[in-house]
Amino acid sequence: xxxxxxxxxxxxxxxxxxxxxxxxxxxxxxxxxxxxxxxxxxxxxxxxxxxxxxxxxxxxxxxxxxxxxxxxxxxxxxxxxxxxxxxxxxxxxxxxxxxxxxxxxxxxxxxxxxxxxxxxxxxxxxxxxxxxxxxxxxxxxxxxxxxxxxxxxxxxxxxxxxxxxxxxxxxxxxxxxxxxxxxxxxxxxxxxxxxxxxxxxxx
Length: 203
Prior knowledge:
There is one protein chain. This protein is α/β, with parallel strands linked by helices. The chain has a domain at about 25-120 and about 140-180: P-loop containing nucleotide triphosphate hydrolases (Rossmann fold). Helices cover about 55% and strands about 10% of the residues. It is built from eight helices and five strands. The protein has a five-stranded parallel beta sheet with strand order 2-3-1-4-5, sandwiched between helices. Helix 3 (about 45-70) runs parallel beside helix 5 (about 100-115). It starts with a strand and ends with a helix.
């Protein structure tokens, strides 16, 4: 199976991915920002590097999906290819940080890829308000994220909600403003119970 966790920057995707992977013994697929050759440049100059960054993400996630579908193990994935295509890239274009020419090129590339992929067997969406996102971002202390603007996070949240509102696959929505699954065992157990219920419907 392919389980995926979606959510805005700082929503807690990596933390929950690790918790569920440990609990179920699933193979884990994390977003490796340390190996990303564009991320630092992007946050310093979004307009210059937005297209390069999004094509990089698209390539990595496409390769990862192929590995998941070719394998026999259940894999839990931190962030999906759809978030890049339906949230991050359109948001950069709308903010004037990606040219129409580059956005059209990116969209055609994703459309070609999209004909060869399928949705995750289960999507877990982490819904979080801006204060919680900012708090989590500050706690993890990534230097390149210090330049993230509040209006950027707000726009992303709006696009996430629009995407989730139209999503047709099997999904769990978790309100992260009311959960701390890293520090509170009862919250982690609550999430696992919801995942268990959803997974039972897959068999």
